[in-house]
Amino acid sequence: MNTDTNISNEQLTTLVRERVIKGELDTDLEGIIQAVNYRKERLNDRKAFLFKNGQRVRFNSHVRPLYMRGLEATIVKVNRTTVGVKLDSSAGRFGTSVIKCPFNIIDAI
Prior knowledge:
By secondary structure, the protein is an alpha+beta fold. It has 2 domains: 9-48, no CATH class; 56-108. The chain has helices at residues 9-22, 29-48; strands at residues 56-59, 72-78, 82-87, 98-102, 106-108. It has a 5-stranded antiparallel β-sheet with strand order 4-3-2-1-5, with no helix packed on it. A hairpin with a 3-residue loop joins strand 2 and strand 3. The longest helix has 20 residues, at 29-48. The two termini are 29 Å apart.
């Protein structure tokens, strides 16, 4: 959360991205990477509690291959950073076997 009222979170994000791309934050880059990775792990820890075995989910716009968007599945296993899902019907190279996928490509129905 940005506590500076003169700049929005979107502006701050854009500024940081631009400075990283330009190399202006090279001396702090490793620390930034570690902070981002730490935050991603905490988000995944929290998401693991949102999903339960037997829960119905739908693949969202982050999924690749694109033909899986909108497909529905059932969670059969919840891990720390991924879930195992079984598709309702086969799609492309994915049959009805269990598919291991990250939390960010599915949404609860």
